[in-house]
């Protein structure tokens, strides 16, 4: 089974940092606006920030440890989730299209994500974040090829919906 | 083809009057009695109305649709033009809706849905009634021809067969008696339980004004009963108006349904696009041996589902009749559901107990810090955790057949969903941290159907970890079998 590139933790951590920062600032102002609270606004905001960041960091750590995927013969297998462990099996036959995406931070770190779309209502888009750029292109290309190859020759059973 | 000329006034009224009215109300409030400002507002409202009128006239003049052998082409747009071509083979549903006003004027609204994107792909507001019926029928016919060409390679259409197809075969008709029954039985018990949940909280406030002994108590109880009855009657009336004159027909390879007292709805669902079939029974229906049938296609987007949440469904029929009808649509096996392991039931007992204790703790906190409530009266209800757990356990299960997976869930409303293997899109195993303690896993059979957002997925809840793994492996093989079998 394949793991994500370890640098993806940096992206997730950055996201949780931004989230905690926003929450901290909001709490600071909220406490500032209400007079009846005994703590100073900066302490309250700082505490919220630190706690959220700690929880976020723990989550990132566990999330990275839980993430794995495998490009199998007929299916794409993905396992992820900290609180809810989710294992998804996507038959290539069901793949509608495959995207390779690279956000600005991902680009800085030389990473990329692959997003697989099916017609399903729930697992409609399955994304694999944090792959080395080269590997992301590889995976996209492989999935694309496999999706086309797996198309049944006749009948409309292969029709997506 | 153009829209019906009457669509112009109807559209103006439905859009323009509302807008102008809002303008007047808001403007007068803003003017605050000043005569100059008030008359200015009225002038502005008239101007708005005129603009809307001009827009709708232009919309009508610049709207054009055409049904070719292979597609429905629509040219629309006043300022930015849009040409849309919908391949008939991709069409999922064709709905004709006639509101009360539209029926008086002899016009109808036509909606065409495909599986793609959000929202309705083609919305014709409004066309003449005959045109709407013709459009619906023509789309069905041409799509059938296209499908036949595809599978056989020869376009032969015996005249006799075609004649037989036109009227269709009535599969189900809701009699007036069943309609009334449906209204009465389809009452959502959650409404009542919501009221009951609030009752202990409301009691002290009422209690301040009414002596809570003798006549006062009787008054409270009477009020509650009347409230529940009123809710029931209202929900029954809504259902009856919605499903008045329900009829389900099979026309060629399509299902066709019509219903509604004030607003008539007439929809088609191609059987070749059917995703899942679901038999649903709420508490009352189960008590009296009735059930309803819902079918699911990929056409409707979430939120745009026709009212009631069920598409071409049988609203109410005896249980056996529903199952035999379901089997004519999707030929599934005689299933024997496998229930979750016994430890799952223990888990439910604990869960319900915890919920009950949380409610008690909440009541205690309210009593202690806010106002005095008789929080302890709920305590005896904790005993209910055991029967509730048994019920939840007894209503969950799955079975894998030769061509279909069957999954059942539901506490108040039991849903038995039949998923053909060749419709499964992805297989998902889910395990929450709470389930992990008990080594239980849920398996979701995801399809392209659109109801899973409102009605939940087809899911085998709380299976043994090993059973879940096996379940996924087996159904994965069955999916491939079903897809490649035709080769």
UniProtKB/TrEMBL annotation, chain A:
<feature type="domain" description="YdbS-like PH">
    <location>
        <begin position="64"/>
        <end position="143"/>
    </location>
</feature>
<feature type="transmembrane region" description="Helical">
    <location>
        <begin position="38"/>
        <end position="62"/>
    </location>
</feature>
<keyword id="KW-0472">Membrane</keyword>
<feature type="transmembrane region" description="Helical">
    <location>
        <begin position="12"/>
        <end position="32"/>
    </location>
</feature>
<dbReference type="InterPro" id="IPR005182">
    <property type="entry name" value="YdbS-like_PH"/>
</dbReference>
<keyword id="KW-1133">Transmembrane helix</keyword>
<protein>
    <submittedName>
        <fullName>PH domain-containing protein</fullName>
    </submittedName>
</protein>
<keyword id="KW-0812">Transmembrane</keyword>
<dbReference type="Pfam" id="PF03703">
    <property type="entry name" value="bPH_2"/>
</dbReference>
From TrEMBL, chain B:
<feature type="transmembrane region" description="Helical">
    <location>
        <begin position="348"/>
        <end position="366"/>
    </location>
</feature>
<protein>
    <submittedName>
        <fullName>PH domain-containing protein</fullName>
    </submittedName>
</protein>
<feature type="domain" description="YdbS-like PH">
    <location>
        <begin position="60"/>
        <end position="139"/>
    </location>
</feature>
<feature type="transmembrane region" description="Helical">
    <location>
        <begin position="37"/>
        <end position="58"/>
    </location>
</feature>
<dbReference type="InterPro" id="IPR014529">
    <property type="entry name" value="UCP026631"/>
</dbReference>
<feature type="domain" description="YdbS-like PH">
    <location>
        <begin position="245"/>
        <end position="327"/>
    </location>
</feature>
<keyword id="KW-1133">Transmembrane helix</keyword>
<keyword id="KW-0472">Membrane</keyword>
<feature type="transmembrane region" description="Helical">
    <location>
        <begin position="179"/>
        <end position="205"/>
    </location>
</feature>
<feature type="domain" description="YdbS-like PH">
    <location>
        <begin position="408"/>
        <end position="473"/>
    </location>
</feature>
<dbReference type="InterPro" id="IPR005182">
    <property type="entry name" value="YdbS-like_PH"/>
</dbReference>
<dbReference type="Pfam" id="PF03703">
    <property type="entry name" value="bPH_2"/>
</dbReference>
<feature type="transmembrane region" description="Helical">
    <location>
        <begin position="12"/>
        <end position="31"/>
    </location>
</feature>
<keyword id="KW-0812">Transmembrane</keyword>
<feature type="transmembrane region" description="Helical">
    <location>
        <begin position="217"/>
        <end position="241"/>
    </location>
</feature>
């Amino acid at each position: 089974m394949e793991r994500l590139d370890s640098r993806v933790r940096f992206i997730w951590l950055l996201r949780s940092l931004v989230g905690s920062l926003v929450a901290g600032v909001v709490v600071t102002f909220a406490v500032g606006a209400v007079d009846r609270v005994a703590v100073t606004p900066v302490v309250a905001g700082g505490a919220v920030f630190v706690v959220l960041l700690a929880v976020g960091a723990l989550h990132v750590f566990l999330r990275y440890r839980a993430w794995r995927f495998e490009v199998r013969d007929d299916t794409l297998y993905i396992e992820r989730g900290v609180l809810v462990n989710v294992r998804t099996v996507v038959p290539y036959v069901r793949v509608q299209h495959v995207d390779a995406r690279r956000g600005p931070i991902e680009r800085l770190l030389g990473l990329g994500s692959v997003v697989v779309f099916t017609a399903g209502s729930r697992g409609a888009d399955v994304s694999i974040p944090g792959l080395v750029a080269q590997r992301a292109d590889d995976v996209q290309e492989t999935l694309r090829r496999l999706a086309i190859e797996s198309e049944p020759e006749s009948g409309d059973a292969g029709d997506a919906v | 083809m153009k829209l019906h000329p009457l669509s112009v006034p109807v559209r103006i009224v439905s859009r323009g009057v509302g807008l102008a009215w809002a303008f007047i109300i808001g403007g007068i409030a803003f003017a605050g009695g000043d005569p100059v400002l008030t008359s200015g507002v009225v002038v502005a409202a008239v101007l708005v109305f005129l603009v809307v009128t001009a827009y709708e006239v232009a919309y009508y003049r610049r709207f054009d649709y055409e049904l070719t052998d292979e597609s429905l082409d629509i040219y629309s747009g006043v300022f930015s033009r849009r040409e849309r071509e919908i391949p008939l083979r991709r069409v999922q549903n064709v709905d004709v809706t006639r509101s009360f006003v539209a029926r008086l004027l002899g016009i109808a609204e036509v909606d065409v849905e495909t599986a793609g994107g959000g929202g309705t792909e083609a919305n014709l507001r409004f066309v003449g009634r005959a045109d709407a019926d013709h459009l619906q029928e023509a789309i069905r016919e041409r799509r059938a021809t296209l499908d036949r060409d595809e599978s056989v390679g020869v376009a032969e259409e015996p005249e006799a067969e075609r004649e037989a197809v036109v009227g269709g075969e009535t599969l189900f008709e809701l009699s007036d008696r069943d309609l009334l029954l449906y209204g009465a039985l389809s009452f959502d018990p959650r409404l009542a339980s919501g009221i009951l949940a609030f009752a202990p909280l409301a009691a002290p406030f009422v209690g301040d004004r009414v002596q809570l002994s003798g006549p006062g108590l009787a008054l409270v109880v009477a009020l509650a009963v009347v409230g529940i009855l009123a809710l029931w009657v209202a929900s029954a009336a809504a259902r009856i108006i919605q499903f008045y004159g329900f009829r389900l027909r099979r026309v060629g390879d399509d299902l066709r349904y019509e219903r509604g007292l004030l607003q008539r709805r007439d929809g088609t669902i191609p059987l070749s696009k059917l995703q899942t079939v679901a038999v649903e029974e709420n508490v009352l229906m189960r008590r009296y041996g009735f059930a309803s049938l819902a079918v699911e296609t990929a056409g409707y987007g979430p939120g745009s589902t026709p009212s009631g949440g069920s598409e071409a469904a049988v609203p109410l029929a005896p249980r056996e009749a529903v199952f035999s009808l379901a089997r004519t649509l999707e030929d599934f096996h005689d299933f024997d559901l496998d229930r979750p392991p016994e430890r799952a039931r223990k888990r439910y007992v604990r869960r319900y107990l915890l919920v009950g204790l949380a409610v008690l703790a909440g009541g205690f906190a309210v009593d202690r810090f806010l106002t005095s409530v008789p929080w302890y009266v709920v305590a005896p209800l904790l005993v209910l955790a055991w029967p509730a757990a048994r019920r939840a356990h007894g209503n969950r299960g799955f079975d894998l057949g030769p061509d279909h997976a069957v999954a059942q869930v539901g506490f108040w409303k039991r849903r038995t969903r039949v998923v053909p293997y060749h419709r499964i899109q992805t297989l998902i195993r889910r395990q929450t941290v709470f389930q992990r303690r008990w080594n239980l896993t849920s398996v979701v059979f995801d399809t392209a159907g659109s109801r899973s957002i409102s009605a939940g997925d087809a899911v085998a809840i709380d299976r043994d970890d090993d059973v879940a793994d096996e379940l996924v492996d087996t159904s994965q093989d069955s999916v491939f079998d079903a897809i490649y079998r035709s080769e």
